[in-house]
Amino acid sequence: MASGRRYAHTGRPSPSSLRINRPTHISMTTRFKSRFAAAALAAAAFISAPLTAQDTIKVGVLHSLSGTMAISETSLRDVLLFAFDEINAAGGVMGKKIEPVVVDGASDWPLFAEQAKKLLEQDKVAVVFGCWTSVSRKSVLPVFEQNNGLLFYPVQYEGEELSKNIFYTAEAVNQQATPGVDYLLGELGKKKFYLLGSDYVYPRTTNLVLKEYLTSKGIPAANIREVYTPFGHTDYQRIVAEIKQFAASGDAAVVSTLNGDTNVPFFRELANAGIDSADCPVISFSVSEDEFRGLPTKDLIGHLGAWSYFMSVDTPANTAFKNKFFAWLAKSTVPGIEKTGRVTNSPMVLSYGGVYLWKAAVEKAGSVEVDKVRAALIGASFDGPGGKLTVQANHHVTKNVYIGETLPNGQFKILKSYEQVYGEPFLKGTFK
Amino acid sequence: MQNGDGRCPVPVLSFCDVSFHFCIQFLVTSLLAAMPALAADSALVRTLLAPPAEQAALIRGLLEAEDDRIRPTLEAWRTGEVFIHTGADGTRIPFLLDGEADASGARSAVAVADGAPLTGPDGRPLVLLSSSLTAIETNAVIRRAIRDISEVIGLSDPAPDVRKTAAERLGMTQRADYEPILELRLGREQNAGVRRALEDGLALIRLSHGSIEAKIEAIRVLEGSNHLGVVDQLKTLVAEGEKEGVTPEVIRAAQRTIISTERHFFWVNFFGTAFRGVSLGSVLLVTALGLAITYGLMGVINMAHGEIMVVGAYATFVTQNLFAGWFGADGALYDWYFVAALPVAFLSAGLVGLALERGVIRWLYRRPLESLLATWGVSLALQQGFRTIFGPANVQINSPAFLQGNVTWFDIAFTYNRIFVIGFAVVVVVGTWLLLTRTRFGLYIRAVTQNRAMASCMGVQAERVNMLTFAFGSGLAGLAGACLSQLGNVGPGLGQSHIVDCFMVVVAGGVGNIAGTVIAALGIGSIDQMLQPFLGAVMGKILVLVFIILFLQWKPGGLFPTRNRSLD
Q1: CB B473 within 8 A of CB B346
Q2: Strands A304-307, A282-284: parallel, antiparallel or unpaired by DSSP?
Q3: Could you tell me how far CA A135 lies from the centroid of its own chain?
Q4: What DSSP element (H or E) covers B543?
Q5: Distance separating alpha carbons of residues A283 and B261, to the nearest angstrom
Q6: Would you call B537 and A234 a contact, using CB atoms and an 8 Å cutoff?
Q7: What share of chain A is helix, strand, coil (3-state, %, to 5)?
Q8: What average pLDDT values come out for chain A (432 residues) when binned by 10 residues?
Q9: Inter-chain touch A294–B417, beta carbons under 8 Å
Q10: Is the CB of B239 inside 8 Å of chain A's CB atoms?
Q11: CB distance B491–A261 less than 8 Å?
């Protein structure tokens, strides 16, 4: 009954989910069975093939490989498969090979929950690496809590969440948005802020926190404007005209949480209206090197980004990572994998780091049991391509933060770095 | 200088008196005449090779060197097109890529210093690919300096408009460094308009840096000049002015300036909204016009209309790539790919439409529900086809240079791509109207639309007319796709995001009536833009939909209901 209440509470009542905690998954309901019969059969056939449970550890990969988010999420699947191959080549985890189970969330949030259930109940994976949008994470969260699963989430997000079953390798707001705004306030001396975002939970929550932060820094409410546009919006004429007037005094900046391909019409309109980064820089929190591949980079020179990794990070660890990843891509046999024009970005590196943090914890705990791994994860650390990652007690990760500006070749030049920033998920109401 | 007309291109050593300044200038001129470009170029080269921290100061120092090459070289630097070649003896030579690109896109390397081609170790000229080189880096400070320098050089441009814009821009920077330069120019400027801009620019600078007397004087100058950028400063001055001993008269002047500026921008926003409404309406019109033919006139509910637009958009992409292959992405003819893409988009989308009509729709003419489902299926198949051929990610379509940028008039930026869409919509609508009313084919279309049986009896080949009408409507959708490629993203999902808007426009305008479609498109576009400032983009769009639903409750036939065979 407890589970039923929880599902009703999260607005996802479903007959099959009520029975989710039954002792074994063999006694699934007819409905559940019919829905997954084919998949289960295929999976069973696949699983019982050559390798037995003794010499492999199954891990889940849950990303959108089709639909609107596929552009971004497919890269994460690629880097995860690369990390598994790399670990397996080096002897695996506790001497066991990692066996990835890749499922497609198809940019469909309820499907994410179903796929998560399948991974945890049928495939019995030890850990899942996945999700991009906050709404997909919110929809799988109850599944992970009920099955006591383990999820590593790698993409910058809005905070205000903490589940014992999720580890957030992602940038929290204070590891991306507030350092970015600090740069605008300090180094660039900006005094007016135009907060522009896509209309969903991440931009709205982030902007809520940013408004409190800016107010605490003495920016009057009249100098902050907050504007949202729907997903897939293409008509940025009015917003750009408004930005032009807003920025006429020369001390304004745009803080953009626009997600996905709406960035193209926005930046095109901005460039056409003759607003360049010298007049009014735009700092974007959702545009990384990967998204740049679809943007007219010449129009974007000098605009800013804030991430915990840039492909241009100049360290031996990053050079080695890039070389190995591109070499792996070149000879990869994953069907449909893109081999040319590839880049690396922060969500990829945080996904990659998540795998190694999990490996370290499993080896420390001597088991893949979720409760033991969770305890061992606290304090685990990994020297990744973007710098050291350390898991905190609050399931977030201490990491470096970089502010970069865009170059004509679609890369970022690092302007400022903040070393080892502690991830703080609950910021709302803390700036006074 | 080199062109010998005696005007001063750049104010040199602006702190010294004018006669001394001319002496120096004369000396520099004769030196330059003796050793063409050498002095200037070495300063330029020194700047390019300097450590980044010193570059901004050196750029501002380039004011004292004079060369036609400074401005283009700095501009190339700003956009990442100046590179460094390290010679065999370790000397570093800044160079640009110049000339026609070869098959691989590589161009010959030309030294910044003397414009001579660079040679490799084997003595042959270097031909390099820009993507394989590392450009000399810039940062915000350097780019700012480059832009300011361009404006300072622009102050002595022969064209008054350029001088005027330069004066306005330098004023807007409100940097005290430019005060002497503007003063110097003001002493020489003859053109009244440019003088006014220089005075305004000086006032803007003094408003933020001058003494209280200078500020008061600046407010007097700025009264009635409508600079939005100083409103904040004026408001502060009004709020705190009395403490600082500003007389009430000056405060009143500042208040008058604030009010007149705000009134000015009320009208700017009013006409800006009108322009944006017409522009959004034109986009809606261009996308809906094809549907006005296939759905409006023929009564076919074509859910694949959006995907036929996407065919046009991908045709533009393919044409662009062909042009890049033939002429090189930097070639002079490359920009004309878009003009060539329009007929290509029209024909390819028309052919897809023709195949759709022959293959599916002609069997379903009197069965709207089946045609809805069948065309929906076709749209899914086409989307998957785009994914297979062009990949799931958006493709990049570059705007030709003549569609980039804007013309600013009355403080409204009229962007060229929007102006183009408006003009394009007019041409397409007029063309369609002429075709329907002035040609024999148009007569047939109207005849078959109004009464198919009677038209057949009179000897019109109704089936053939249907086929061609549908192909024509699809061709118009293809043109819309080409147009959309200049405004937003081109990907497999592009059609889905426009199909609802298209139906909305055609239904609101009255099915079967082109004039209704035109008015509905412009009306919806304008209402959307009018609501946006108050409600935001999301609520604005919802409210427009609510309006349309209420409107259709009141007038179920749309703006101009017509009777035809499909509705009877």
Answers
A1: no
A2: parallel
A3: 12
A4: helix B514-554
A5: 30
A6: no
A7: 45, 20, 35
A8: 38 38 40 46 45 76 84 90 95 93 90 95 95 92 95 92 94 93 90 92 92 93 91 86 87 89 85 84 90 73 92 93 95 84 93 96 94 94 94 95 88 90 88 76
A9: no
A10: no
A11: yes
